[in-house]
């Protein structure tokens, strides 16, 4: 069995999407048990200069949808950033998964060593081989922002653990 960009991406992103669904579900249940409104926790940050929980989830979907769409050679679907509840965030992750899984595998897998140029924030562009773009940019950003969601929920006292983040909890 040979690995393709699609097989690597889908295996890793399936775990990230599943983990986010699990930890957001547990975070919501814990917030409800404490009579905390969703907006309080969705706007929580680890530090003043970091994005809030809701934005971290949005960034997971943005990096994965936009990145994988670029690898497939199609214009990325734009997801609106208007989520106001845990349920909205879980729906966004489900939509991201749906979009990524619908992309043409053959187009994604074409010439993994060819360069791809992409926006890298603050008006900059980067160029990487397609395989490095997947491994070092798309997946790294997805994992970073998903881990930050986990860390925010842990800081708030939600009963999430490593098994949840690995998509291995009984709920997953």
UniProtKB/TrEMBL annotation:
InterPro entries linked to this entry: DinB/YfiT-like, DUF1993
Coiled coil, from the record: none
Pfam families for this protein: DUF1993 (PF09351)
Recorded superkingdom: Bacteria
This protein's name: DinB family protein
Species this protein is from: Maricaulis maris (strain MCS10) (Caulobacter maris)
Highest classification ranks of the organism: Bacteria, Pseudomonadati, Pseudomonadota, Alphaproteobacteria, Maricaulales
């Amino acid at each position: 069995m040979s690995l393709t960009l699609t097989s690597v991406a889908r295996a890793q992103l399936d775990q990230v999407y599943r983990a986010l669904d699990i930890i957001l579900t547990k975070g919501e249940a814990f917030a409800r048990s404490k009579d905390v409104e969703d907006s309080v926790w969705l706007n929580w940050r680890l530090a003043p200069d970091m994005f809030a929980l809701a934005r971290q989830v949005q960034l997971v979907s943005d990096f994965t949808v936009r990145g994988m769409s670029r690898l497939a050679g199609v214009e990325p679907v734009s997801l609106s950033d208007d989520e106001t509840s845990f349920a909205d965030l879980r729906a966004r992750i489900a939509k991201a998964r749906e979009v990524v899984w619908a992309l043409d595998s053959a187009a994604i897998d074409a010439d993994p060593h060819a360069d791809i140029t992409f926006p890298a924030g603050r008006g900059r562009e980067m160029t990487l081989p397609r395989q490095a773009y997947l491994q070092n940019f798309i997946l790294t950003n997805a994992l970073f922002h998903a881990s930050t969601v986990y860390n925010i929920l842990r800081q708030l006292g939600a009963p999430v653990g490593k098994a949840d983040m690995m998509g291995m909890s009984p709920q997953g």
